[in-house]
Give the backbone structure.
Amino acid sequence: MKYFLKTSKIALLLLGMVAAISCENELDLPEAGSQEDTTPPEANFIATVDINNFAIYNFANLSTSATTYSWDYGDGNTSSEVDGQNEYAAEGTYTVTLTASDALGVVSTFSDVVEVVEPEEPEAIIPVIIEPSFEDNTLPDGTGDGRDSWRNSDLGGVIQINTSSTVPEGGQAAKLPSDASRIGYQELTVTPNTDYRITYSYRIEDPGGSATVSVLPGGGYVDRATAEASAIVEFTGSDEDYTLVTLDFNSGADSTVSIFFYNASVEARIDNFTAGLQ
Amino acid sequence: MKTFKNLLMLLIVVSTVSCGDDFLEPVPTAVLVGETFPNNAEELESVLVSVYDALQGVNSLELTDASLNHSQQIEFYVTEMLSDNTRSKSGEGEAGQFDNFTVQPTNGFVFDYYRSMYDIITKANLVLDNIDLAGDNAATIEGEARFLRGLAYFNLVRSYGDVPLIDAPIIITDSEAQFTRVATSDIYDFIVTDFQNAISSLDVTSTPNRASKAAAQGMLAKVYLTQGTNYGEAQGLLEDIINSEQYALEADFRDVFFNEANGENIFTVGYVASNSLESQNFSAEMLNGVGRTSGVNYVTDEAIAALDEFGGDRAQYSKRVDAQQPTQTQVVKWIPNGDADLGIAETSSDPTSAGNDWIIFRYADVLLMHVEAILAGGAQTTSSNALASFQEIRDRAGLADDPDNPDDDANTVTVITRDDLLVERRVELAFENHRIHDLRRFGVAQDVLTEFSNANGHSFSATDLLLPIPQFEINLSNGLLSQNPGY
């Protein structure tokens, strides 16, 4: 009896194997005993533009449970590779569609839009200095006494205006009296990481003192010691005739820089600021 | 029947023995098992040291239990060998899966690295959960633990994508936290917070083996560059490191690797030669026929060509012909047994118990990231601050103009493209586990590795850019943890 049971078990096993093999020919009969596709394909991809050519896109296929793929790049080009790459002939908006299928013929599609556009070379901002040579009525609205744009009462008193002598530009210049209590300060908008050049002219009235012009990173300065210690670039001069000075600097991570000028010991004059790219 | 009974007995004995090692089997990855909870400041410090130990990993040639974590010591398999820089000599086995882009979810290195990172995270969480025991050192200890936790998550998220976020000690039954994958962007938010805390808590250190403020600033900058946002903040962090004047390029490139604790290295993993607990075996694994595992992380033809064309002085200290097998090329940067021709002294009498430190972060990376931050995703830059940082790297590599010839300006950098920067990073930081992350971050991985794969008959597809979630973890998760596409 025992022997018989063992034999019959083997026979049953054999029968089962045969049945399994013979089943392969009957895939398209969704009847009792058939199973649904529990892992249907799910199409997915991400598109990345080539770093050297804006017209080329790479498509990373992130689909799951699929075996065959069909790409429609939206410009008439197609592919059946796993990952896609396409070079577009013209700028425009294209809808890319990936169709992913599994071996049972179940299909999933995923679409995404790519923008093919030539990146603009960003133009560097040319900083605008207001009241650059301290003339009356040179505010943007046509008013002003030549010094309104240069105030920062936290750092010092407002500059005086010299109107009586010959100055490098126009009829007025900034005047810093010998008590050194007055300063000029103006914030400029710049493009980060750009090489700029600021020029100005200055003189001191008597020997034994100096005039300093500095460019500070960022803006919002409220403390004179901090401002004096922060310069990206500065020049301290003691010429008694008007002298042209060039300050070259890089704007660094900031989109704002500040011009800050002051004097020491003797009266100083400053005039004719310009700003531009190096 | 008697034989059968004996067999059964044997089976029982065997299974009893295998249960004896650990109370929990299989051991879960992100849960504290058998840790001693700290009771005072001294014990808390020792838990902090255990976080560094978790990063260090164990030397698999000294301590051979396969369930131990090898952490930094096996990182090159899942990073450098997955890139176009290195391969295994034979192309076979689990190491070979990285060469030819056929990594399986069952790959031992994929699992080892994953659980190693969570080991760091788990122990760091234990420190942070008990930080009130710390006393005067609380800020520093918190900063170090957060730095190491942030680093571990940064490694995980770059290699595996969405991963479970464990931010406090958890117990085994907390399977939702263990096995719920959290979106990459949320993981990055968490990493940023950790690094920011580390920056405000840490200062300069006497050894690059401990986390410092500059290390945290640099890693946060790299996170920002990876996210492709906050370029300005990244630049500011890097300029803080530059302006601190605590670090500088070594004059001689060789000394970066063979004169340890030099002024260029900002964060390194320390190893001690001939010490079974503190030594490493990766140096031996990169040799030919030394120790149990070897002949891995060999240099690809593509990396040889790049180093020869663009490396300058760096080429000879980065790769050398394998003397035993002259058709093959080895990595020089970590050799343990010296090289008289290159003027490199032996670091360890036994190469399988080597003492070469692993450099995670050095000043050259600061300068190159500075250029990357200024590029800010653009095609090229001519900004003088970027040129200066780039020129410093090139000059040290012996690519400076002839100082005696004023007409020689062939090596003066006047413009830097993204391609230039990628090539410079490749030859400067070759075999330091940067390449695969750089390719991902620059958005060129699919393009570059498809070409590399086609040229070498490998089977790369874009889903290979993320490692699989280890099958072991998926099995433990009872269906909670999903696999990455393509596996």
Remarks:
- Chain B has a mean pLDDT of 91.
- Chain B has 19 helices and twelve strands.
